[in-house]
Design the sequence.
C-alpha cells in the first residue's frame, strides 16, 4: 500500500517537472524571439502586434501614444496601420522600455527554475520492488 502511494507521488512529481521544463523551454523560445525581433532585422515598418512582441507595452498604450502624438502612425489602408521601426525603437528606448522585456523573461525563468528545484525528487528515493 505504501509503495503504491510512493509510486504515485513520484509519478506526480515527475509530471510536474516535465510540465515546468516545457514552460521554461517556451519562455526561452519567447526570449530568443523577442531579442531577435528588434528593428535591425531589416524591418522598416512595424504593426502594433510586432511592437507588442518587442516591448513590454499593451496595445491600448500604443494607441494612447498615437493619440498624444508621441508615436507617429502611418495609415496604409483603412484597416492597416504601421509605424517606422527606427522611430518606435528610439521612442521606447527614450522612455526606458527598450530592453526591459528581457529582464522580465529572465525573472520568470528564474522563478520557474526555483520551483523545479523545490519540487525535485528526493536524492535518496526508496527502492520500489
Sequence:
Amino acid at each position: 500500500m505504501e509503495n503504491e502511494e510512493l509510486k504515485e507521488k513520484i509519478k506526480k512529481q515527475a509530471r510536474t517537472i516535465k510540465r515546468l521544463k516545457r514552460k521554461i523551454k517556451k519562455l526561452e523560445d519567447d526570449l530568443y524571439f523577442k531579442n531577435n525581433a528588434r528593428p535591425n532585422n531589416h524591418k522598416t515598418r512595424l504593426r502594433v502586434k510586432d511592437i507588442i512582441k518587442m516591448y513590454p507595452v499593451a496595445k491600448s498604450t500604443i494607441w494612447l501614444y498615437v493619440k498624444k502624438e508621441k508615436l507617429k502612425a502611418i495609415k496604409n489602408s483603412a484597416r492597416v496601420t504601421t509605424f517606422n521601426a527606427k522611430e518606435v525603437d528610439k521612442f521606447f528606448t527614450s522612455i526606458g522600455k527598450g530592453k526591459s522585456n528581457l529582464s522580465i523573461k529572465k525573472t520568470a525563468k528564474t522563478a520557474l527554475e526555483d520551483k523545479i528545484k523545490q519540487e525535485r525528487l528526493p536524492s535518496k528515493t526508496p527502492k520500489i520492488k
